[in-house]
Write the structure tokens for this entry.
Amino acid sequence: MNPMKIVFKAPRLKPVLIVILATLLLLTLIVIPAPRQDVVHAAGELKPFPQAVNYAGIIKPNHVTQAAMNTAVSTYYDYWKAQYLKNDLSSLPGGYYVKGHVTGNQQGFNALGSSESQGYGMIITALMAGHDANAQSIYNGLFKTARAFKSAKNANLMGWIVADHINAQGHYRSATDGDLDIAYSLLLAHKQWGSSGTINYLAEAQNMITNGIKVSNVTTNNRLNLGDWDSKSALNTRPSDWMLAQLKAFHEFTGDQTWLNVIDNLYNVYTTFSQTYSPTTGLISDFVINNPPEPAGEGFLDEFPETNIYYYNASRVPLRIVMDYAMYGDTRGKAIADKMATWAKGKANGIPGNIRDGYQLNGTTYGGYAPAVFVSPFIAASTTNTSHQAWVNAGWDWMKNKKESYYNDSYNLLTMLFMSGNWWKPVVGGTTDNQAPTVPGALVANASSSSTINLSWNASTDNVGVTSYTIFRGGSQVGTATGLSYVDSGLTASTAYSYTVKAVDGAGNMSGNSNIASATTLPSSPVGVNLALNKPATASTTEGTGFEASKATDGSSSTRWASVEGVDPQSIYVNLGSSQSVNKVKLNWEAAYASGYTIQLSNDSGTPTNWTTVYSTNTGDGAVDDITFPAQNAKYVRVNGTARGTAYGYSLWDFEVYGASITVANLAAGKTTTTSSVEGAGFEGNKAVDGSAATRWASVEGVDPQWIYVNLDSSQSINRVKLNWEAAYATAYTVQVSNDAGAPSNWTTVYTTTSGDGAVDDLTFNATQAKYVRVHATARATAYGYSLFEFEVYGA
């Protein structure tokens, strides 16, 4: 593993002599004219500084004028530029870098800066264009350095060290935070100068986002790892890398759903972590590991002891969180920022200089100094609430005069840009675009299993580009896709479904409906049939002739697959030929068994790359393992061995997969319902269980929480609930069950989410006995209430 960079606070600088200060001040008054707001924009900036944006729901300092804030930012930038922006690399003429303090193993080179400092500099320079007439040439020089110092592992990323030696270029591996900022800065550059010049900023950004960060830093569990040296299945992650607004921009400019999945997961990780470790402070540790998430231990990655508390990495988090609310209106970000801000203001007694550099997660003070990288982000987080106005005003006055070191000054300037409204949101296309995309053509639907239908269509065209496609089943939205295909799963066996698709462009315009395509799902897979029998199998390695992967799926317990000896990990997967509902894997191990392994599923249509773990063990003992798990749709099933039980390899006599039984009867159909409220006549609870998608239950408007439950009449074994939401859906809700004999009062939660997106939610969970099933909604997506077309329950 390559060492990760962690930036510490630099020692405080000693004051300069009063005589020198007085001399400089006198020269300034005599020689240097006052800064002007009406600078000449010679580089043709499209969004020249100052932009002075007002974010919805965000307050600014109100004791100074906007012009005064702009002047404070430009003055601070001039100082920062003179102090840290350099172009003195003899090994890379024309290459700019931001000189910053770096710790960690520099591997024989003298580090001058890092990808982190490069990212800060590129964002700052793009935002300050217009004030700085040379901003574009400086930015291009920074980009030149970022590309020259490419990562040794993924050339689309930047190595984490800048050093003045030709051999340092391409020597180091990457650090996630620097690349996220660099890629985002390219989107800002595209909106600032356009992409028709010497550098195609947009193409460079999209390539870096998709072929760099997505390939190397987005993990299989939708977290962000620490760099391209880190594992794609890593659970360790650094919250200061959770740049949620930047990830939303990545989604807008690529149309890739991956980024929304990552955002949703990171919010869930944050919520789970805070509920356990920081329920009153909202603080998070410098590094987070494992699932459920928990603080990393002291000295994680051998960098420094304080990796388990709120320290010099996590101090950056409040700015990253509040920007997602400011720029994209995500209330999850506001909730976290509100908690942090309220705690921080109270801890400091309303005096910014009382903030300290480090806290235990419960709020106990650890540090003894007030650096900007701790103070400024807390002030930024406080801009979500007018009750913090005096604290925000005091914070601004403290920030604009604070000058100390690269790390603190750079993050202080970024925060000032945000708080003054001069960090603007990059938007795909233009805000005046009203041209809808063309209608998607040739929609085709094909059933691939008893619960899955595959859709494909021809591409739409648009003047600013198509970013996604919206899929409708029977007139109700069921999902989105960024490509030209979609897999609709969780369907009922032997049932006909009809679909249409619409295209969406970068400005949010939607096309008309495609043609209607229909398909009927296949009958249920027979229980007890080995779905893997004689199906194609693929292995990571083979010991030799006669031990091929196919020997594990040929139905003979006298032939076997065997991997090469003495190497971990090793894997074998079987292609079932089509998506199947599976819930059981049976493994007949030879003497060379796995003590540690996982069972993983993939429903990819082509070569499998996205795997979901449904079973894991570190105590395997060989012989026969008969493993069951909640039913899921899968085309590929993999055994991934991570620890050998012997000195040899891994070997399986038999690798069997079995289909799950699908119960088609909706147990809630026509049953009695009870609700917390009803909007009015015609919206009663029974409308959600009447089998008609044209009628619905609706709660009263504007009140949380609300609920509906159905009485199944008797105790049933259930493992699936299907919800067809009307436009008034829940972003946060739980599914609960009760097996009480009379009126239900004891509820057990079997499913919970805080990232609901409406349409159809087809939910599975471990089989449980229930007489009553309840949907308990706690957060609305709209100003209205909650409304369900259909509330279905299925037996296990």
User: Anything to note?
Assistant: Residues 258-277 form the longest helix (20 residues).
